[in-house]
Amino acid sequence: MICMYKIGVVGERDAVIAFLALGLQVRAVETPEEAMRAVDTMAREGNGVIFVTETTAKEIEETIERYKNQMLPAIILIPGSQGSLGIGLAKIKDNVEKAVGVDILSKKEG
Amino acid sequence: MKLNVNPTRMELTRLKTRLKVAVRGHKLLKDKQDELMKKFIDLVRKNDELRRAVEDELTESLKDFMMAKAVMGTEMLEEAIIMPTEKISLNVSKKNIMSVNVPVMEFVREGKEGASIYPYGFAQTSAELDGAIKKLHNVLPQLLQLAEVEKSCQLMADEIEKTRRRVNALEYVMIPQFKETIKYITMKLEENERGTLTRLMKVKSMIQK
């Protein structure tokens, strides 16, 4: 099954405006409520991937959690204009802990 | 904990079949879990690496973008990039990894042949913006790969957890329960048999007297 999807970006204005130049669908938001609505609308309108900046994402955990177990849309965190907050990496670690029981990734480093 | 059943021969046969099914199911699920885990670990390593790389690059390019914005002024910049030259859409197909449906993403650029990635004329924009957009343009394929890998990881983690629950429920609850109940019924039946036998012997000896 192959379908065409769009790609959306949600986040604060400074960070997401750059993606406009690439031809992605961009929604600049300021408050968590706006962000929630933007993500939900985008999911309904058939966006296959929604990039959300970390700064915005930490306010709308619930909404993101809701889409976590669906195949589409994939909500992916990207660093905002202030740089990476490490939420994305922490999410990966959560996944590992959930699946394996121990954190195997950070053991490799230290 | 044994199940609350009548100690009859019929119940015994039924339980034995159920035990057989449970053991077989347990073996299959265990195999599934092992395989899922193997795939998951490979994938999650890749996910980790990819995310680090993408985050670095993206931060860099956003920083450049901020610079460009500072140099050019917000309005000019927005005016310059408001009409992109290309449109990117996504082809999503499904892939089945051990009964987990994961998306496979492939993105399609729709733009005019040979159009440049810069959606503006060079007269009024600064070189910083060119650099920033070029960088962003180069990160995009990786970003989409990250999206695919990360989503797969999420879905697989979920499936692994579910499978583990099932395996544990079978291994530590269902199978011991069945075994114990089967043992209980066998004992009870044997006991009954012995009871009947002694009674028969007793009756026989009483008749003989």
UniProtKB/TrEMBL annotation, chain A:
A GO molecular-function descriptor: proton-transporting ATPase activity, rotational mechanism
Protein keywords: ATP synthesis, Hydrogen ion transport, Hydrolase, Ion transport, Transport
Cross-referenced Gene3D superfamilies: ATPase, V1 complex, subunit F
Presence of the UniProt keyword Cell membrane in the record: no
Record bears the keyword Acetylation: no
Superkingdom assignment: Bacteria
BP GO annotations: proton motive force-driven plasma membrane ATP synthesis
Function: Produces ATP from ADP in the presence of a proton gradient across the membrane.
Family: Belongs to the V-ATPase F subunit family.
Stated name of the protein: V-type ATP synthase subunit F
Name of the encoding gene: atpF
From TrEMBL, chain B:
Alphabetical list of Gene3D superfamilies matching this protein: 1.10.287.3240
Keyword tags: ATP synthesis, Hydrogen ion transport, Ion transport, Transport
Coiled-coil intervals: none
Family in the record: Belongs to the V-ATPase D subunit family.
Family annotation (Pfam families): ATP-synt_D (PF01813)
Name recorded for this polypeptide: V-type ATP synthase subunit D
HAMAP family: ATP_synth_D_arch
GO molecular function, one term: proton-transporting ATP synthase activity, rotational mechanism
GO biological process, one term: proton motive force-driven plasma membrane ATP synthesis
Lineage: Bacteria, Bacillati, Bacillota, Clostridia, Eubacteriales
Entry function: Produces ATP from ADP in the presence of a proton gradient across the membrane.
